[in-house]
Structure formats: C-alpha cells, structure tokens
Amino acid sequence: MATVNSDLARVRAQATFDPLLLTHFIYDGPEKTKRKRFLQNLALKDFKEQKFRRSAELSREEQYEEALRKCTFTVRRINELGLKDPTELYLFREVLFPSEPSPFGLHESMFIPTIDKQGTDEQRAKWLPVAKRFGIIGTYAQTELGHGTFLRGLETTATYDPRAKEFIINSPTVTSAKFWPGGLGKTSNFVVLMAKLTSNGRDCGMQPFLVQIRDLETHQPLPGVSVGDIGQKFGYGAMDNGFLKFNNIRIPRENMLMRYSQVLEDGTFVSPKNDRLLYGSMTLIRSQIVGGCGRSLAKAVTIAVRYSAVRRQSEISAGAGEVQVIDFQTQQHRLFTLVASAYALIVAGQVSTQAYLSVTKQIESGDFDNLPVLHALSSAIKAFSSWEMMYGIEQCRLACGGHGYILASGLPKIYTNEVPACTYEGENVVLCLQTARFLIKSYNAAEKGEQLPSLARFLQAPKGEKSRLTENLELDQLIAAYEHRAARQVQEANARLQSHLSRGVGAAEAWNRSSQSLVEAVVAFSHAFIVRAFIEKVTSARLDPSLSAVLVQLCQLYALQGIASNSGQFLKGGYLSDQQLLVVENKLYELLAALRPNAVALVDAFDFPDQVLDSDLGRYDGNVYEALMEYATRSKLNKTQVHEGFQKYQKPFVDFLKSQAATQSKL
Amino acid sequence: MATVNSDLARVRAQATFDPLLLTHFIYDGPEKTKRKRFLQNLALKDFKEQKFRRSAELSREEQYEEALRKCTFTVRRINELGLKDPTELYLFREVLFPSEPSPFGLHESMFIPTIDKQGTDEQRAKWLPVAKRFGIIGTYAQTELGHGTFLRGLETTATYDPRAKEFIINSPTVTSAKFWPGGLGKTSNFVVLMAKLTSNGRDCGMQPFLVQIRDLETHQPLPGVSVGDIGQKFGYGAMDNGFLKFNNIRIPRENMLMRYSQVLEDGTFVSPKNDRLLYGSMTLIRSQIVGGCGRSLAKAVTIAVRYSAVRRQSEISAGAGEVQVIDFQTQQHRLFTLVASAYALIVAGQVSTQAYLSVTKQIESGDFDNLPVLHALSSAIKAFSSWEMMYGIEQCRLACGGHGYILASGLPKIYTNEVPACTYEGENVVLCLQTARFLIKSYNAAEKGEQLPSLARFLQAPKGEKSRLTENLELDQLIAAYEHRAARQVQEANARLQSHLSRGVGAAEAWNRSSQSLVEAVVAFSHAFIVRAFIEKVTSARLDPSLSAVLVQLCQLYALQGIASNSGQFLKGGYLSDQQLLVVENKLYELLAALRPNAVALVDAFDFPDQVLDSDLGRYDGNVYEALMEYATRSKLNKTQVHEGFQKYQKPFVDFLKSQAATQSKL
User: Where does the chain cross the membrane (chains A, B) (predicted)?
Assistant: First the structure.
C-alpha cells in the first residue's frame, strides 16, 4: 500500500494551482501552516506510540474508556509541550480526538471558564488553580430532563438557609433532574450548577453554584447525589453525558458564583449591575462553531472527493469502460458545491471571529453599540452553518454509495458527532428567532430613516431594483443579489407580522404566526453575510493569480448554487429574470466542469492528516479497498468462524424444521 | 405510569374526526384493520413473553445475536400461525423487528425469490422446498468491494469446465470480493452468486449461480471460501452484512440458475429469449419501498408530534408559562408538513403497487406496452420518497431537541436503518437518470405528435399557460401546477441536452452534462405523480365528511409546501404570479393552524403500537420523562458507581498532576 492509487494521483496532478498556497490561505500564512503541521505530526506520533484505538472498532463502553485514557494522556502531553494558544490546542487535539468528544471537554470549555467569568476574585483564586490541575473535575449542569432552551423554566432549587449560611440544593421533580451535561455521568466530581435561587422567601432567578458531587478520593457519589451516564446516543460514544439528581444536599454560601448576583450572609440578594458581558462569550463560541462546521464539512467532502476519484463505476460512453465517478456531473454537483460551502463556512467563521475581537475591544472601552448586531449575526450564522453542514455531510456519505454506510468510511462518525451543533449552544430555530427580533427592529428603524449598524445596512437597500448580473458573474452583483433577497424576505416577514397585528392579533401571537417566515428571513440574512464574507476575503487577500482564479470560481459556485436552489426568492418581484436564472444554471454547470481538475487539490489543501479524517475512503494514498477489507476482517463477529449464535439458535431451529418436515412427509 | 400525560390527552381529545376511520383508510377497511391489530397484538405478546431485548441497550454484537434468536423464533411462529399473505407477514414482523433488519431477511426476500424466478422447474423442485424449511440458508451476492451499480463491471468469475461439467468460481482481485450482502457474514450457508461467466472461451455476461459456502452441519466455511462480517455500520447492527472471496472452488453445472440463459454440457451457451420479466420484480420492490418510506417517516413523525404535545418549553406570551412546543408555528411547519408527506408517500406506494398489479396482468396476457412507463415511474418515486424520508426523519429528530439524540428516542435507529433505501435497490441518482431517459424519449415523441402512455401524458400539456390557482386551493389546480412544473423541467433539461448536441458534443457526454438538470426534472415528475395520487385517492374514497375535510387539508398542505420550497420552478415563465405565491404561503400557514387540533389524531391513526415505535418520546401515554430516566439508569456504564477507568487512568493522572504541582510550589 505504499504507492498512491493512480486514478487519484492523476486527478491530483491536474491541479492548476499549488494546494500549499491554499493551505497557507486557510491557516493564516506559511509560518502558522508550518507550526500546524509540526503540532499535528507530534500528535500523530503520540497516537501511534500510545496505540490508541480507532472508535469504528470499539463498543460504546470501550469508546468511553479509550477516551478517558486519551484525555488524561493529552492533558499531560499538552502541559509538557507548554501549549496555550487556543488554535494550537485545537489543532493538536483534533488529531487525538478526530471528530470525537473528550470526557474532559466540558471541564475545559465550560467549567473553568464559568468559574473564571462568574466567580469573584476570591473564588477564582481558590478554585481555578485546583481546577486547572484537575484537582477537581467539573462540567456545566444546566439542561434538565424537562427543560432546555428556556432558562427560567429550570426546576432545580437552591434555597438559602441563613442560619447555617448554606444553600440547600434539591431536585423536586422527575423533570428537574439534570440531563445531558457532557462528562457528568462518570468523569466529573464537581459541577457548576444552574439552579433557581430562593433567599428569604424571594425568588432570585437562576444562579450558578459550585457543587461537589463525588468524593475526591474514592469517586463515589456523595450522599444525596444520584448521578450516572444516560446511555447510548446517535453519536458521542466517547462522552459520558450524564444525569444528576439532588436530595436536599447542603453547600456553603461561598459556593455560589457571586461575581454578578450575590447573596449576603443574612440572605439579602444583590442584583447584578450589567449582565451584557455574558453575551460576549456566547458570541465567540458561536463564531467558532461556524468555522468548526466548515471544518467538519471539509473533512466529509475531502473523503468523498478523494473516493470519487478512486471509485470507478458505470460508463459514460457505452463500452468505453467504467469511469471515475468524479466525472459524473451529478457527482460533481453534489460534491463541488459542498467544497465551496466548506470554504465559505471556514472563511465566515474567521470573519465573524475577527468581528468579535474588534467588538470586544469596543466593549472594553465601554462602547456596547455593536454588541446586539454581532450577537444577532453570530446566532444566525451558527444556525445556518450547522444546517448546511448537516445536509452536506450526509450528501457526502450518500455520494460514497454503500461504502459511505460502513463506519470505516469515517462519515457516520463525522455526521453523528458534529450534528449536535444544530442543537447545542442555542437550538437553531430559537437562535434564528432571536436574530429575527433584531432584524425586524432594524427594518422598522430603517423605515423611520434611522441609520443601521453596518452589518444590517443592506436592509435599507431599495426594494424595486433589478439585478444586473450577467454571464460574467460579477462578484458585486452576486453580493447584491443575496442582500436584495435578504432585505426582501425581511420585508415580507415584517409585512406578515404587521398584517396580523393590524387584524388585532396580540403581539406575541402575531410573532408566533409569522415565525416561520421570520426564520426564512434570517436564513437569507445569514446567507448574504456568508456570501459577502467569502467574496471579500478572497478578493482582498494577496494571492497568487493561479490560486485567486480558483477561489473566485469557488465563490461564484457557492453563490450560484444558493441562487439556483432558492430561485423563487430571487425571481420574486422580477429581481432576477427567467433569462438570468437560466444563465445562473448554465454557468453553475460550467463551473463544475471547470473545477473538476482542481477538485482533489482543493480538498488536499484543507491539509487534514489521514488520522484526522479517520476514513478508509478518504485516505491520501487512495488505497481504499485494501483498507476496507482489512477493517472488515477485524470485525468482532469474525473472532470465530462460526458465531456462537449458530449453536444456540440457528442449528436447533434448522434441525427442528427438518424433523418437522420429515414427520409431515411420513404422514 | 398508568395515566396518559394530560397535555397529550388534551390535544388528542381536540380532534375533529375519529382516527379509527383514518386507520381504516390506511389499512384498507375495518376488517383488515381488525386483522392487523390481531396479528400485531399476537406479535407483541410474543415479544414480551420471549423477553426480547431493546436494541438501544445492546452492543452491535448483542444486536446480531438477539436478532438471530428473534428470527429463528419468528419463522417458527409464522409457520405455526400459518401466515402467508405478504401484508400480514409485514405487519407481524414489524412488531418483532421494529425498524430493524433480520439476518434471515435476504433469504426470504432475495434468495428464495431468485431461485423461484431464475431457476428451471427442476432447480425449483430441488431447491425451493429445502430453502423454505431453512435446510439451506442463503443470500444474494451481487455487490463487490469495487463494484455496485454497474452489473457488467463485476469481477467474480465462473469458468465452465466441460470435462468435469463444473464451474470454477474465483475472486481474481481485491475488488472482486463480494461485499455488503445481508446475512452473508455469519448466517448464510448458500448464496445466489452473480458472476461473469466464461464458457468455451466466450464471455457470456453476468449469470446467477447457486453456491454453497459453509458446511451444512458444522457451519464452517468450505475450503476455498473466505467469508465474514464486514464490521460496524451507521445502522443495521442486527445484520451480518458480509464479505466473500473464492479461491477457484468448483460447483456442478446444475448450480447455474438456467431459466433464462443456459450452459449445455459441452459448454454451449444459450441466450435468453426475453429478459423483460426481470424488470417486473424490481418494479414491485421499488413500489413497496415507496410505501415503506412513507411508513418509516410516519413512525418518526408520530414520535415527534406526540413528544411536541408533551414537551413544554419557552413562552409565547411573556409570563404566561411555558407552552407545548406543538404550539410554535415553526414546530408545526416542521412536523405537520411531514405528517402530510408520510400520508402522501403511503398512498403513493399503494397506488403504484396497484399499478404494478394491473400492468402485471397485462404482461401475463403478453402486453408489455406499459412496462417501461411503470418501471420509469417506480424508479423515480423510489428515489423521491427515500430522499423525502431521509430529510424528514432527521427533521423529526431535530424537532425533539436534545432528546432526539438519545437512542431511547427511537429516531436514530429509524434514521440509520431506513436511510439505506436511498442506496439499495438502485442508487437514487442512477435511478433518476434511468427515468430521465424515458422522460426525454417521451418528450420527444410527444413533440412529434405521438400519443404518450397515460402516466406521462402531462408532458404534452401546453407550456405557456398561467395557473388559475386561487385562495380556495382548488385541488385540480394544485395537480395542474405540479404537472406544469414537471413538463417545464423536462422541457428545460431537454433543451440543455439538445444545446450540447447541437454544439457537437457527443451524445454520451451531452447526456452527462445535462444530467443534473435531468435529475431535477425527474424529481419534479415524481412529485407531480405523488401529488396527483394523493389527491385522487382522497377525493375518490368514500369517507366520512369529518375525515374527508382533514385529508383534503393534508393534500393541500403537501402540495403547498412543495410549491413554497421549490417556488422558483413554479414562478418561472410567470406560471404562478408573485401574488399567487404569497397566497400559497399565507394559506400554508393557515393550514398549519387549522391542523393543530388534529395533529395527534393524525399520527395516532397510523396505529403504530409503542413497540413498533420503540421510542421513549413517542409513547402513546406520553410518560416520556419517566421512561427516559429509566433508560438512562440502565446504561452499561452505570453497572458500577465508579467506572474502572477511574482507577486505571483518572486517579493516577490526578495524583500525578497534584504531586507535580506540589513539587513546583516547593521550588
């Protein structure tokens, strides 16, 4: 298996640009690319030396145990290497946990950051050092069996007892059990608990508490604590998502995280002054999810494109022999549009993270003006990109035919472990409706002649214009088309809302009755942002002309595909003519053919090591069939030639039917 | 848990029609409904008495063993009961194998039928009785590691040796290994093997052979046979999909299935007279898949609708308390459109199966005229319905938020075990392109003034008309809109094809360059068929007016949703005006609200026992939270309070970091 599959090698060699230049574009220059490769190679070496096992061969329970082995190893290794930069940590871990969660994930991403942001200086000094050296291991326990999105609906109670200076933590109902937090089931001995605080008989809303749930030495659950794993899931086999119930346990007053709200010793509740800062970290996380979705889609499409160059199936011209499936236009349409999407989402993640950083600076200087628009934007594109990723990964799996269905393809794992992005950190529909509030407010402000923040300014665009898009596929005209469509969809959703209001429907119900069209308006808004971000990033970067030409084609393909598949929203009002739509479709097909020689180079440029793809179909060397057969032979059912079920069930059954037939034939 | 959740009960009670009447509509009358319930209750009792285990709690290996136990039990039970009718068998098995495959599945659906249809009378007499009493257990081995769709590409060889009067069966390459057949890995001792026949040095094409692969007593693989399970997959844990390689093994001449092609003793190859009959069974299977996709979607949407009545989350009016999520328009949009799809696909399956039966009668009397159109239609709607199902089940899962992700929801199992319908029995894109050939041929025949078969007649419809659809949502206008759109899409695809041809592109390549638009035309064609089938079935049935009113609403919703989400194809050429599209959207939202009281009754009417749904979220009694918590506590990771990984990995790791910190603080 040392040589590269010749069909794959030939397509690879046809590229009109140097994929390394594109890798530099993605990873922010040659230096960072070099560093990325250095770190990922270190992690690769570790993975091999430690003989970590492939999750496609493990049971769910084995996956958890292996993940525990990996995450304890990884933390020590990261400490040794002194890695601190978030991007470097991400890239290092990506190799050891390829599309897989870590039981320590929530400790690092939520438990420590919540203490850091919501603890007082005293609390931070007490808990952060011990948490950082895993002296306590925690997770973030908010979601309950009966409650998710709606924070105020949580039922877990924290009642202050001023005599003992303690909180009493309780789970009063079945539905109040904490359910889902990652790392909760078996790994954590602490949680940041969101609970409904009552002090001096007063409802003080949801507050965060540090609660110990297991003994630090024996790891046994503490008295009054019932905790465990929630069982098998669609994916996330490596993660011990857990449940947690409290039977009136007591924690000291000092364990409420009191940077914002406080309970004084006598039980007096002190409200926070400003909680807008909380939005900031959600915004950052959502921007990161956007890029992460792009990266997950990039993995899936790397697998599918490489396999499509290796796989030969059916003839185009009868008798001319089976062709590489990448030569079928339908396959190109399925995959190349997803290559474009992956790039678009990765770029959008970068652009929105940049926007977050610049708005953060404004906030630090006391300027909160851009926070709402940034928050609205990050919510919307998180929803948009996770939906695109979800759809796209499954298309990649289907594009691999039957072989996409075996775990060795890597695609089921990518799908099942990445698709929760549609639900976590804000359920997508809920997020869209948050952004819709912002858009409707902005739209009405614009109607009144107010100036909008730059990201929403296109809502002021004139409504009656016609597109000037020609077969040259002018990039500014593509942006204009998307912004026109978004403005129009917002306008229509607003009209629907106003029409309900004008017929006397109450505000809340009118909003509900308009909500589907509001969601569609937010999708159009997100799409417009991403098209603009992608085009602006590509046209503003200093790129070799050979690379620039291909990236412009990708921008065009991304934009055309979105127009073709939502054509009604562009045709409405005659903005785009039938003739222009025909041009869009024809050019779309031409772009597929034009990108064909660059398809493998475009996915190679994502620079995923084979270990990260974890796919027998997506191997860089294209030796897919040998790898698949090797995977098959290692199936646990092949431990014996004859499965024990044969003696237990099949043979007695066959013998019974045989003797029955013999008896009947005698009768 | 004896009482029904009050929120669910309340919605159930709001229905404006009797769901039992709708159940009769689905299951073809009160008598058959009674029989259906009788049989499913028997199977339910069996399932409980035998203490069969739930797959959501089993490892993949346990799933296979449990499935073997179940299928041996089920065959004996079916024999006892004397069940023979395919529908009755389907309904009985549905309870014992809820959305799960059986290791005997291919024996019954492919191995026996292939011997039956392709064996000579002598072969049938010899093999069928023994196969039917499982004296031999087989599967159908066609797909190879490197070859799927393209039959002529298969590499397994069968070389006739006239001296020994035997065939030599061989797997000459890595890619020639049979790969994927269900039941092959561990269960089967025989296969019907598709292999490339050579006789007297002549290539005689692909032929079917009966090949023994395991000893009938010991079940050990025979010499020269390498066989095993292929490992873990996205779903299908209960199925031992297998690989199979031959090293020049010999089988007697009599083991070639010779009803059509024959090899005489001296090696003379005799070609078949007419192989069109083969299309017939594929057509039936594909029609059945259509109904099966409807049924799978129906299961998913039953779960999601019931759970949406139980689940309360977020407020519509601030302070008014959390509402049932079914009250959110976005949730209604997601789910009610899928309820409509499920009904539409179930009906389409019935209609196309009926069409198959009547065409079969024509064929038996020597009339093959309608076979091509039926074949084209069944291919197209198989593709269309499996795509709709795939999309729809995942929407149902997302509609259940986080809880949709746990295996106890039942939704991941339904998805992963049903989605292979997009790939098996003809990969969807390949099927669409087969149908496209028929459509283009028909279109050009119509252009020449030839009369088309009735199912394709709308391709002759005038192209320039305008829709007369009003806010009364006339059913004939909805059908007309879909047929106009389909005709237009076929016309456009044909124009694209002709344009390539007229510019000198070769026929094969011109076809390829038009293939994406051809696929889209086939989708439009399928959609039109389903809309018409649904509407005609509903309007022609004798129904209680209370039921008829709701079913007409479902037809309208199905049609409107398709227009709204493909609006560009209806707006093109001004067929539908912007104003009409606005009406479509407004009416769509009105229908969602109108269907809200009937939502639970509409899914209850599918009449799935809880056991078939196999879902803690979709329970008829709505006691979802108790069930989920019970599932969680049974997680294998909860066998001990402290997982063994704690002592093995976590504690040493924590101790190490602690001692390291102690050392550092001393320095």
Answer: none
Helices (H), B605-650: 610-613, 624-633, 644-645
Q: Which of A67, A100, A133 is the last residue of a domain?
A: A100
Q: For residue range B97-115, list pLDDT tens digits in order.
A: 999 999 999 999 999 999 9
Q: Give me B588's structure tokens.
A: 């769509």
Domain containing residue B215 = 132-275
User: Element (H or E) spanning A225, and its range?
Assistant: strand A225-229
Instruction: Give A 483-542 residues with CB within 8 A of chain B.
Output: 496, 506, 508-509, 511-517, 519
| A residues 64..123 contacting B (CB < 8 A) | 64-65, 68-69, 72, 75-76, 79
Q: What is the DSSP string of B58-82?
A: S-HHHHHHHHHHHHHHHHHHHHHHT
> Does A214 lie in the same domain as A334?
no
Which CATH number do you get for residue B172? 2.40.110.10
Alpha-carbon gap, residue A177 to A142, rounded angstroms = 10
Does A224 share its domain with A127?
yes
* A173 — pLDDT class (breaks 50, 70, 90): very high
Residue B169 lies in a domain: yes
Any domain includes B217:
yes
Q: Are residues A343 and A436 in the same domain?
A: yes
Q: Give me the number of domains chain A comprises.
A: 3
B327–A187 CB contact, under 8 Å: no
Which residues, 6+ apart, have CB-to-CB distance to B659 below 8 Å? none
| DSSP structure string for B166-193 | EEEEE--SGGGSEE--TTTTTT-SEEEE
Q: Are residues A223 and A367 in the same domain?
A: no
A135 and A250 fall within a common domain: yes
Burial class (CB in 10 A: 0-12, 13-18, 19+), B320: exposed
Q: Is residue A305 domain-shared with residue A353, that is, in the same domain?
A: yes
**Could you tell me if the ipTM is greater than 0.95?**
yes
Residue B425 annotated in active site:
yes
Please tell me if residue B567 touches chain A, with a CB cutoff of 8 Å. Answer: yes
Is A143 marked within a binding site? yes
Partners of B145 on chain A (C-beta within 8 Å) are 625, 628-629
Residue A563, domain CATH: 1.20.140.10
Question: pLDDT, tens digit, for every residue of A98-145?
Answer: 999 999 999 999 999 999 999 999 999 999 999 999 999 999 999 999
Tell me, yes or no, if B649 comes closer than 8 A to chain A by beta carbon. Answer: yes
By C-alpha distance, which of A102, A174, A171, A117 is closest to A141?
A171
Active site members of A: 425
Cβ–Cβ gap A568/B581 under 8 Å: yes
- Residue A130: inside a domain, yes or no? yes
The radius of gyration of chain A's CA atoms, rounded to the nearest angstrom, is 28
From CA A512, how far away is CA A506, in angstroms rounded? 10
A177: contact with B, CB 8 A cutoff:
yes
Tell me if B402 is assigned to some domain.
Answer: no
